[in-house]
Amino acid sequence: MATEFTGTGDPARSMALLWRTPGEPVSRPGPRAGLDVDRIVAAAVRLADAEGLSALSMRRVAAELGVGAMTLYTHVPGKGELVDLMLDSVLGELYPAEEAVTSGSWRDRLTTVARANWDLFLRHPWALHLATGRPPLGPHLMRKYELELRAVDGLGLSEVQMDLLVTLVTGFVRGTVGGVQERADAERVTGLGEDQWWAATEPYLAQVFDAERFPTAARVGPVAGEELQAAFAPERSFAFGLERLLDGVAALVADPARS
């Protein structure tokens, strides 16, 4: 069974590995002496990217690295700690150019934050649920939080407002990416792509749909479908929602006392 949440392992061991504190060497002598925590985590991330978190096990990761499963346990105590390490590792991909979230207008900075998170969770779909839950406070998570706070610093907002604003933007991103993943899951489970599903349902819908009963849907649906070329256009929804969200942020920045 897939680990559905971070924090299922020993929190102290996870934190020691995340921060590489004394007593947790990066590598140890033994079979495949070149093996270390970073190589194990990288292999686990590749596996999760390719097959999802449900495919992840210490045995599978060991096979990817060409070692026995017990060799992995000399570096990482178990799957729970490994998942913690995986999430923090991919969060390290965010903001390679830190000035993108610390310079320019606040709107540009928050757009960069939103886009970077959107791209990250599309690359690593398995990380979305983990990041939504109770992620461990590793170095890359703390860097992410620090830089995202800097993106809204100096706007006259209180510390609490800054924290809530970062949560609002990143939460919006996770929600929209979640829609992308749900559609992908539906295609995988049903074996039908979006076009195939509509082709199978439209003939019946044409027989039962009552435009007099649903006049607004009858007017809006065809126009939106023609424009978007899909029942759900995730990128368009993301861009539209982000602009409306930032319009709301502009009202807060103009009058921080209103909240």
TrEMBL record:
Name the record gives this protein: Transcriptional regulator, TetR family
Give a Pfam family name.
TetR_N
Q: Which GO terms describe its molecular function?
A: DNA-binding transcription factor activity; transcription cis-regulatory region binding
Gene Ontology biological process terms, A to Z: negative regulation of DNA-templated transcription
Q: Where is the HTH tetR-type domain?
A: 34-94
Q: Does the keyword Transcription apply?
A: yes
UniProt keyword list: DNA-binding, Transcription, Transcription regulation
| DNA-binding segment(s) | 57-76
